């Protein structure tokens, strides 16, 4: 449940809802304009309550875009932000006052006046009676300000009579802004007094935005008695936005009793977005029924989007049964994309069981796209077991590109530099690119332990390019053990390029023994 907000902090959800009504559509209408983008970035900082960063961003926006259509918005939020940063109230008051004078036609003027009333009242309470006159003059300005002041007073009272007054005010006023603010207050005062009214608004109000607002409030209050109403709306409301909001509210409730409803909806609903919303609502429900429900959805849902969403939710559940389910999908489902998604999910579950499942998939899968996905998933695990699986794949897989992918992944999963598997792949692989990849990986390790094996390989290898690569690897070891091999190559090899590479490798070792070898090469006639 969301944290309760105080009277002073009440205005942020009010303003944020207001800007949701009034601003994003305008911003989206001109997405390429620099000023719109800059304003939106500053506004996002306000949404995240990063007040210090927002203050800097707003000041920079106003400086760079003084003629922008968004300047009045930015100036208003400047005043709001400095109050959040605990500036002196007199300075905050002057900020709002300057804003009203500068932008008398702005849509934020009413909000600025309401804030001035609130700030002036606080200053008057501190023994500054001159602000009482300001309060009275502002309250005469507009009926809305009087109602706002009354709303704050009613919120502070919090008794039954005050709540009933709020109900009557909601029903009698046509002003959607005021009704929106009343919903905020109803959420703030708690469910015992307000949930019945919120349910009524969610069911019957003619304004879709206010219905969604009421649904969100019910979800935030986690009122289990409202579950029936939410399920009714989620099941039958003709407005798709309202239905999604009802599912979101059900998700916030985290109530086990709604699992059957969500499961049935995810399976039978034809609209993919609604089916997915039902699956997502299952995610946070703390119930042992959640995993069986997701399994059922995976097998029976009409919507492929719902099946995929259920698969991704299974990925987040730490349960051995989840691995078994994902393996089953990866090996036998009729949809290739879903099979690949199941393999990716196994990569995210870093357990012994998931690695064994991936080993079986690599053994049984025939489709290249699935084998590649399984190689990548094994790579995500790291460790010796993962290395062994990738080694087996590099040796046995029939497609060259997949064998190379296994070698590339193998280098990343080693816990310690150990070239033995890579050397064995080099010896056994029939693919030139795989053998090169193995040599590249050995070169990155540059381990002296590989020198005898590399020397033996040089005697048997016929490919000039591979032989030069091996010579470079010997130089990368920077070990004197490689010097005799390199000296012999430099003096006797039939391939001029191999001999030149051997000289370079000796220079890379740069030890007394390698320098003596270079001198011996120079003395050769």
What is the element layout, followed by pairings?
Elements: H1 11-22, H2 24-29, H3 34-47, H4 51-64, H5 71-84, H6 89-102, H7 109-125, H8 130-141, H9 143-157, H10 160-172, H11 176-189, H12 191-204, H13 208-221, H14 227-236, H15 240-253, H16 259-268, H17 272-283, H18 290-300, H19 304-315, H20 320-332, H21 336-348, H22 352-364, H23 368-379, H24 384-396, H25 400-413, H26 420-428, H27 432-445, H28 451-460, H29 464-476, H30 483-492, H31 496-509, H32 512-523
Tags for this model:
single chain; 525 residues; mainly alpha; 0% strand
Strand portion:
under 5%
Overall mean pLDDT score?
80
Distance between the amino and carboxyl termini: 88 Å
User: Helix tally?
Assistant: 32
Radius of gyration, in Å, reads 35 Å
Shape: elongated
Fold and architecture overview:
This protein has 525 residues and is mostly helical. Helices cover 77% and strands 0% of the residues. Helix 31 (496-509) packs antiparallel against helix 32 (512-523). The model is unreliable at 1-32 (pLDDT under 50).
Short description:
The protein is mainly alpha-helical. The chain has 32 helices and no strands. α27 (432-445) runs parallel beside α29 (464-476).
């Amino acid at each position: 449940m969301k944290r309760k907000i105080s009277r002073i902090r009440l205005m942020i959800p009010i303003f944020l809802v207001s800007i949701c009504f009034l601003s994003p559509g305008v911003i989206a209408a001109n997405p390429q304009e620099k000023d719109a983008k800059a304003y939106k970035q500053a506004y996002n900082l306000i949404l995240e309550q990063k007040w210090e960063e927002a203050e800097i961003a707003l000041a920079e926006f106003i400086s760079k875009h003084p003629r922008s259509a968004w300047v009045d918005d930015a100036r208003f939020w400047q005043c709001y932000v400095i109050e959040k940063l605990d500036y002196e109230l007199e300075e905050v008051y002057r900020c709002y006052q300057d804003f009203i004078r500068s932008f008398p036609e702005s849509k934020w003027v009413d909000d600025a006046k309401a804030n001035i009333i609130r700030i002036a009242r606080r200053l008057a309470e501190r023994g500054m009676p001159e602000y009482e006159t300001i309060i009275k003059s502002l309250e005469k300005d507009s009926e809305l300000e009087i109602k706002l002041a009354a709303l704050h007073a009613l919120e502070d009272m919090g008794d039954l009579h005050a709540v009933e007054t709020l109900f009557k005010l909601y029903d009698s006023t046509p002003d959607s802004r005021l009704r929106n603010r009343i919903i905020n207050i109803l959420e703030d005062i708690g469910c015992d007094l307000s949930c019945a009214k919120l349910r009524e608004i969610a069911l019957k109000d003619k304004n879709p935005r206010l219905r969604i607002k009421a649904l969100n409030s019910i979800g935030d209050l986690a009122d289990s008695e409202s579950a029936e109403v939410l399920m009714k709306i989620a099941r039958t409301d003709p407005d798709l936005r309202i239905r999604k909001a009802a599912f979101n509210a059900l998700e916030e409730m985290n109530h086990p009793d709604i699992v059957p409803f969500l499961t049935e909806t995810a399976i039978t609903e034809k609209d993919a977005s609604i089916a997915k919303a039902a699956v997502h609502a299952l995610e946070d429900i703390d119930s042992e029924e959640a995993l069986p429900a997701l399994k059922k959805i995976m097998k029976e849902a009409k919507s492929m989007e719902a099946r995929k969403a259920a698969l991704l939710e299974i990925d987040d559940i730490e349960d051995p049964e989840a691995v078994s389910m994902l393996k089953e999908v990866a090996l036998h489902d009729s949809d290739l994309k879903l099979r690949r998604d199941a393999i990716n999910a196994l990569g995210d579950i870093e357990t012994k069981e998931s690695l064994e499942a991936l080993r079986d998939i690599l053994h049984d899968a025939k489709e290249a796209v699935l084998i590649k996905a399984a190689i990548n998933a094994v790579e995500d695990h790291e460790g010796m077991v993962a290395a062994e699986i990738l080694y087996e794949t590099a040796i046995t897989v029939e497609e060259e590109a997949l064998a190379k992918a296994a070698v590339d992944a193998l280098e990343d999963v080693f816990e310690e530099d150990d070239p033995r598997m890579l050397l064995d792949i080099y010896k056994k692989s029939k693919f030139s690119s795989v053998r090169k990849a193995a040599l590249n990986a050995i070169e990155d390790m540059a381990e002296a332990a590989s020198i005898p094996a590399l020397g033996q390989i040089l005697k048997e290898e016929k490919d000039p390019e591979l032989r030069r690569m091996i010579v470079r690897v010997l130089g990368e070891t920077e070990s004197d053990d490689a010097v005799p091999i390199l000296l012999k190559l430099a003096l006797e090899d039939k391939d001029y390029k191999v001999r030149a590479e051997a000289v370079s490798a000796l220079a890379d070792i740069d030890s007394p023994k390698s320098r003596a070898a270079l001198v011996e090469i120079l003395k050769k006639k």
